[in-house]
Specification:
With 318 residues, this protein is an alpha/beta fold. The chain has 2 domains: 156 residues, Rossmann fold; 151 residues, Rossmann fold. The chain has 12 helices and 11 strands. It is globular. Bound molecules: N-acetyl-L-norvaline and phosphoric acid mono(formamide)ester (CP).
């Protein structure tokens, strides 16, 4: 694997999940693979899980790991070409990227949507510049439109906990005080559409995601109806994708907060969320603290997802 920016890069998903579950049984089996290789993780945004799980994955593979928080101690970076740089940005990505590339073998990038331009975000301008100018393998640690390490970990978690051959999985919008990216639901939909599951998306009208990710998934504007008989509930907030409201909050309807009321009509569903989660906005304390909540197991699987991806990239470097 050269780069990892979406589900397509994994090839056969069943095989990828099998490989991940094998790695989970012995995560130090490949500790010589990354010898004398350096992983650089570049963060334009905050992170707890991605930072720790990806660094741990690199260490499990015997790599040296470096982390750069662009907003803490590095020069402020300009991202648009052609700008007269007379403002507060001291350096351009066009130099910073090849310089970063010169110090490492693999680069992980976290760079959220900026919501200033849908075109800039959905063309994946930032991560594509890393791919073009770093000269190194690049993987997404959540880009403007996708979070494929999260969705891979989610799929591994579903595979481990499913109680029927073809479970019903429901992605549900839930309220949040801030305008959040569509990256997590986009990638979750992308992976679920490829997996052998019955997939439903539910959200209030106006929160329709890009067709490129929704594809043939069933979309239901009635949350209670969507939850009926579900085996997994995957809650997430996202801001509007459709014009003219791109990046905007249309509603904070607290009736969408996942609570015992909705969980009661599911098939004793497991509860999932990528974290960080706003308690009693996205989900009630009772549901997230309940016996069917998988949020901690899901976060733990981020290490396995990252290790599977980095292992495949390292194998490509041999
Ligand atoms: C981010 C998001 O929704 O994309 C990161 C989630 C992994 N969440 C927040 O900013 C709260
Ligand atoms: N789920 C996830 O990516 O969490 P962080 O933002 O803490 O990395």
């Amino acid at each position: 694997m050269r780069n990892y920016t979406g589900v397509k890069d994994l090839g056969n998903l069943d095989e990828a999940v099998k490989e991940a579950l094998e790695i989970k049984k012995n995560r130090f089996a490949y500790k010589n693979l990354g010898e004398n290789r350096t992983l650089l993780m570049v963060f334009f945004n905050s992170s707890l899980r991605t930072r720790l799980s990806t660094q741990k994955a690199g260490m499990n593979l015997g790599m040296n790991t470096m982390v750069l928080d662009v907003n803490q101690g590095a020069w402020k970076l300009e991202t648009e070409r052609g700008v007269i740089m007379d403002g507060d940005k001291s350096e351009h990505l066009l130099e910073a990227i090849p310089v970063m590339g010169s110090y490492c073998d693999i680069i992980g990038v976290r760079s959220f949507a900026n919501f200033e331009s849908k075109k800039f975000d959905y063309e994946e301008t930032i991560i594509n510049q890393f791919i073009k100018y770093s000269g190194k393998s690049v993987f997404s640690m959540e880009s403007a439109t996708c979070h494929p390490l999260q969705a891979f970990a989610d799929l591994i978690t579903i595979e481990e906990h499913k109680e029927t051959a073809r479970p019903k999985v429901v992605l549900s919008w839930a309220p949040h005080p801030n305008a959040l990216p569509q990256a997590v639901p986009n990638s979750f939909a992308d992976f679920m559409n490829e997996a052998n599951i019955d997939f439903v998306i539910t959200h209030p009208k106006g929160y329709e995601l890009s067709e490129q990710f929704v594809r043939n998934a069933r979309v239901n504007f009635d949350q209670m109806n969507a939850f009926e008989g579900a085996d997994f509930i995957y809650a997430k907030n996202w801001s509007a994708f459709q014009d003219p409201n791109y990046g905007k909050i249309l509603s904070k309807d607290m009736s969408w907060t996942v609570s015992d009321r909705q969980m009661a009509i599911t098939n004793n569903a497991h509860f999932m969320h990528c974290l960080p989660v706003r308690r009693n906005m996205i989900v009630t304390d009772d549901v997230i603290d309940g016996p069917r909540s998988l949020v901690i197991q899901e976060a733990a699987n981020r290490e396995i997802a990252a290790q599977t991806v980095i292992k495949r990239i390292l194998e490509g470097l041999q």
